[in-house]
Amino acid sequence: MIDGNNASYVVSEFSDSDAAAWDSYVDRHPEGTLYHKADWAGLIRKTLGQTPRYLKAQDSSGKIVGVLPLVNLKSLVFGNFLVSMPYFNYGGVLADSEEIASALVNASTDIADKLNVSHVQYRCSSECMPETFPVATHKVNMILDLPESQDALGKSIGSKRRSQIKRPIREGVSHKIGGKELVDDFYEVFCINMRDLGTPVYSKKLFESIFEIFPENTKICVVYWEGKPVSTGFLMHYKDRLEIPWASTVRYANRISVNMYLYWQILSYAIETGFKQFDFGRSTVDAGTYKFKKQWGAQPQQCYWYHYVPKGKDLPDLSPDNESFGLAIKVWQKLPIPITKIIGPHIVKAIP
């Protein structure tokens, strides 16, 4: 039991019976995201085989006053570590006060020490962790404040980009925005693109499970050319923001700027549906993806990825930019797509 602010509160691990109260707290908290929601715990356990270690703080009346979703990732290749939250751009602690936040973080480091992990990573969108924790700030999330109309969007991006959008239209492309019925088309493009990038692919079951758990928050946009899916975006929304956690385009379609058409249709949908912001996802400043998102008017929002490193441990570099992964990436790019679908899910589940 920890006392603070004239009220007692206790930190403990999440149980399924806490789900409704947990989600209600996330909904109320100004920094709450879809990825703080309780249902991710079961989804990650069932589809990715990793172990959630979610923490909650409750006051003396049993009311939740803070949450910290954590997942323990383990593999022979990448080691043993904790992340809040893996696979996505957002996570970290939500709390009613700095004191409660500190208690949750301290509880997470206690778990880290007991599990003998190499490190804990907290993916925050603000400076919210102890100054003693190393923080990586080389990534930003690219956020666009959406205009009131499609016409206003067209004017804001300029004539050059408008002509790029018209090119695939002249080539006869079409698109669909829908639900789970588009998973197969999405996954076909996604697997090809990930193989070409040298990145292991998630299982199709993950995307199907997201639709099952978050049916009201999830959409897919697919662009078709000559009868085949060639570009696609997996869309998730929460509160007044639409996000694209995964986007893919097959390389041969790049010559007709099909990617510009994809984002035009997605942004038009976001405006028509009434969203206030569009989240293009994270990028390294001045990298190619950063410049692509910037041309739509997106502005960088700093990512603060904090780390707790137990005494005697070193923080590993698990980023794809790590030169030690170079050979593996080159080998992966040469594999047949059917093989990547079999092997990929077993590898990628341990990559945060």
Key descriptive features of the protein:
6-stranded mixed beta sheet; 352 residues; globular; alpha+beta; disordered N terminus
Short recap of the structure:
By secondary structure, the chain is of the alpha+beta class.
| Biggest pleated sheet | 7 strands, mixed
β content, as a range?
A: 25-35%
Number of helices, where a helix is a run of at least 4 consecutive DSSP H or I residues: 10
Termini separation: 32 Å
Query: Compute the gyration radius: what is it?
Result: 21 Å
Q: Helix and strand succession?
A: EEHHEEEEEEHEEEHEHHEEEHEHEEHH
Oligomeric category: single chain
Helix content, binned percent: 25-40%
Q: What are the low-pLDDT stretches, counting only 5+ consecutive residues below 50?
A: 1-6
Total number of strands: 18
